[in-house]
Amino acid sequence: MFTFQGRGKSVTCNGQTRRDFLQVGTLGALGLSLPHWFAAKAQGAVPPDSDDRNCIMIFNLGAPSQLDLWDMKPDAPAEVRGPFKPISTVNPDLQISEILPQHAKIADKFSLVRSVHHTGAAVHDAGWQMMQTGRLFTGGVNTPHIGSVVSFERGRKTDLPAFAVLPQLMGRGGGNMPNGQAGGFLGKAHDPFALNADPSQENFKVPDLLPPIEIDSSRLARRRRIRDLVDQAAANFEASENADLLGSNFESAFRLMTSPKAREAFDLTKEPTKVRERYGMNRFGQCCLLSRRLIENGVRFVTINTFLTVFDEITWDIHGSKPFTSITGMRDIVCPLYDQGYSALIEDLDQRGLLDSTLVCNLAEFGRTPRVNPAGGRDHWPQCFTCGFAGGGVQGGRIVGASDPIGAVPADRPVQPADVAATIFHSLGFDVHATLPGPGGRPFPIVDSGHNPIHELF
């Protein structure tokens, strides 16, 4: 937290001391408690690319079972195939689980990669890092999220942020490691804007979007002159490079708070009730709807966390016994809301002509064990799992790679997290061989050497 302390002490119009008011970490009255993406574009940012594609990354926190959803093995022994049966889809070449009936209706619009794997530890945090950044963090270097790279390279289009996370950042994963949903070495300026609210709630509001109710518009306008206070109270700071950063940070905060376009983008009441109900009146469904609205209004990259932590809520983490999810909990609670929200998003983007310009990728930290455990669930398994891709130039209805007869390891076309990252960058029009200004100013590759997009998808 930056703290600016002037030589004197004065009192603002609402009774705050000047010193209190100039503590950036407590500037809630001005909206300066907003995430650090308000900071100015880092040096090296380039103009928007001619290919103006966007991305919605659905991160299936907890890790779905590939064997029970997208890579079923109906001829395997019962302890491998599990309790669910495969069903036909609109794609004659693809069968998926009976517990995803809405997916079956749109299976010509998404493609699956059934041979994703990684060598990281079988803990959630490690997989979160690898699948969202393309790397496991080593040597104290935190690699930026793919959305943060997009923010750094292309900046914002409108008053809205370039990169947003819905409904909020990931919580604990059990490994006590960074989760990969940050700007990393690119800096806090490229952290995502986190909604920090449940858009399915009747009284849904964005906490950091509007000023507190006790500050009316005229008082807010007067507060805009806080820059003068900063100038006077921090002359020495103003002589540094960070001064410009703070100035742009403030201007961005003020733009967002006072932007009718930003307020409207987050206003789900603008949507017909029928549309909201199609997505599902639950947190995930309304986040899917909100992601579409944000993309329409200029946000470049949206990550949706299907769940917030693997603890204390029903998730994809189907170990089978409390405090985790049972396989029936996945069938009765998780899959219905996911099936509804995802299918609605793909159909809506397609009907609005946005699917070709918006990549929707479905990722997870790993898969689940090939054999059902004694509790009737499945445990962590990074050795083989499935990811999905739709839109953004991806051809629907394709199946890339294959697992072995029990879904344990890739049998064809192995794919690693860096290849997934390269695929996303490729869809967005990036040169996957480009570099970023890394720690110490050294060039840092966007994607590690030897890893390439999954071209079979395009």
Automatic annotation (TrEMBL):
Coiled-coil ranges per UniProt: none
InterPro entries associated with the record: Alkaline_phosphatase_core_sf (IPR017850), DUF1501 (IPR010869), TAT_signal (IPR006311)
Signal peptide residues on this chain, from the entry's feature table: none
PROSITE patterns tied to this protein: TAT
Any one Pfam family match given in the protein's UniProt record, by short name: DUF1501
PANTHER family associated with the record: BLL7424 PROTEIN (PTHR43737), DUF1501 DOMAIN-CONTAINING PROTEIN (PTHR43737:SF1)
Protein name: DUF1501 domain-containing protein
Organism whose genome encodes this protein: Bremerella cremea
Lineage: Bacteria, Pseudomonadati, Planctomycetota, Planctomycetia, Pirellulales
